[in-house]
């Protein structure tokens, strides 16, 4: 049976791999060895919900959340800002991946923000950003 729903986590990781700088690892979760894998962007999504303009399964709305970890605030911010800007540029250019494409990025998306306190003992800085997206496949 053909799956009719969008695989939001797969699309989110694929999209962020497309926009991440070459030296950044993109993963779907935090692992115990994260400090040894810097810089890294951890990508998660909220539960997708159907969009009202089309048949069920034609599109989904979800939040694409990215946490960028690096060895300095400046590096973490630069990576996060580059990925955020790259996502907007790729969407505007009509990027399409194996898992689908982003048809809209919402205006309530959140630009990169420092997250205080995460892994401070390991001298790791973290910046997060969130994209509200409508995706299709």
Features:
137 residues; 8 strands; elongated; 35% strand; eight-stranded mixed beta sheet; alpha+beta
Can you walk through the features of this model?
With 137 residues, this protein is α+β, with helices and mostly antiparallel strands. 23% of the residues lie in helices and 35% in strands. The protein contains 2 helices and 8 strands, in the order αββββαββββ. Strands 1, 2, 3, 4, 5, 6, 7 and 8 form an 8-stranded mixed beta sheet that branches. A hairpin with a 2-residue loop joins β5 (96-97) and β6. α1 crosses α2 (73-92).
Distance between the termini: 16 Å
Which range best describes the helical content: under 10%, 10-25%, 25-40%, 40-55%, 55-70% or over 70%? 10-25%
Indicate the overall shape. Answer: elongated
Q: What structural class is derived from the secondary structure elements?
A: alpha+beta
Task: Show unreliable segments.
Answer: none
Please provide the ordered H/E string of secondary-structure elements: HEEEEHEEEE
Oligomer: single chain
Helical run tally = 2
The residue-averaged pLDDT reads: 92
For the largest beta-sheet, the strand count, sense and barrel status come to: 8 strands, mixed
Give the beta-strand count. Answer: 8
Gyration radius over CA: 15 Å
Percent of residues in beta strands: 35-45%
What is the element layout, followed by pairings?
Layout: H1 8-19, E1 25-27, E2 40-45, E3 49-50, E4 59-70, H2 73-92, E5 96-97, E6 100-105, E7 110-114, E8 125-136
């Amino acid at each position: 049976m053909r799956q009719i729903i969008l695989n939001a986590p797969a699309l989110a990781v694929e999209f962020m791999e497309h926009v991440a700088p070459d030296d950044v690892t993109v993963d779907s979760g935090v692992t115990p060895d994260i400090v040894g894998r810097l810089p890294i962007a951890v990508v998660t999504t909220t539960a997708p919900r159907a969009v009202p303009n089309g048949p069920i399964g034609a599109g989904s709305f979800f939040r694409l959340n990215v946490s960028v970890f690096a060895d300095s605030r400046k590096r973490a911010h630069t990576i996060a800002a580059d990925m955020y800007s790259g996502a907007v540029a790729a969407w505007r250019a009509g990027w399409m991946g194996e898992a689908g494409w982003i048809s809209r990025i919402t205006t309530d998306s959140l630009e990169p923000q420092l997250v205080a306190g995460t892994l401070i003992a390991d001298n790791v800085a973290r910046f997060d950003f969130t994209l509200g997206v409508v995706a299709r496949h």
